[in-house]
Design a protein that fits this description.
By secondary structure, the protein is an alpha/beta fold. It is 33% helix and 21% strand. The protein is built from six helices and nine strands; from the N terminus they run βββαββαβαββααβα. It is globular and about 50 Å long.
């Protein structure tokens, strides 16, 4: 049994390749990607929040705390991670772990948190991230609350923006998933991705339950 782990959904990007807007609110198979992410992560986590900038009212129907970045000029996903860790320190100070996942991945695995925690424990590293095939997914990660101030210093004093530069300093374990027949971290970045996600969701809806 892994330790309690808080969940943060990252939806702070600008979605330029989709023409703007919120990718998390795109509908796939008649449901928003965000609702799919919530259904997958809720049973795995001790609580959930959404990292997003702008007017939080657009996410009101989901009943989530909406946490904006505390840094200006779209400082990237590390700024969202820091915002999530700051929220966690206030909302649940005894919780030592946070998992993050993008708000544009409609098919996340249902063993995400367990596999990340297992990889961290097995390799003796303070951080963990997901991999499929040859691709790492640095924003699909496990973050210890104990590194919150170190991350703040890296962002504010060093102007560091690349996740993998910061995680390499501390050591990161890798949890691997197969990328066939479907990469569970497939994300919707373009209209073509959206069309493919619709096809995947339609096939899943037609498949018999195991």
């Amino acid at each position: 049994m892994h330790p309690p782990t808080f969940g943060l959904i990252l939806a702070g990007g600008q979605a330029r390749r989709m023409g703007g807007g919120d990718k998390a609110l795109i509908e796939i198979g008649g449901r928003t990607i965000l609702s799919r992410v919530l259904d997958t992560l809720r049973p795995q986590t001790s609580g959930l929040a959404l990292n997003a900038n702008g007017d939080p009212a657009r996410f009101a129907p989901f009943g989530l705390p909406v946490i904006p970045d505390d840094m200006q000029d779209f400082a990237g996903p590390l700024a969202g991670i820091l915002a999530g860790l700051d929220y966690l320190a206030k909302a649940s100070p005894r919780t030592e772990w946070m998992v993050s996942a993008p708000g544009d991945c409609p098919f996340l695995p249902r063993d995400l948190v367990a596999r990340l925690q297992e990889a961290r424990e097995r390799e003796g590293k303070p951080l963990a991230c997901a991999r499929t095939g040859d691709w790492r997914h640095p924003v699909v990660g496990l973050w210890p609350a104990s590194l919150r101030e170190d991350l703040r210093k890296a962002l504010r004093e060093e102007n560091l923006r690349k996740i993998e530069v910061w995680t390499a300093r501390h050591g990161i374990a890798i949890a691997a998933w197969p990328d066939t027949p479907l990469d569970p971290f497939f994300n919707v970045n373009t209209p073509e991705d959206r069309a493919r996600a619709e096809e995947i969701a339609a096939r899943a809806a037609l498949s018999p339950s195991p």
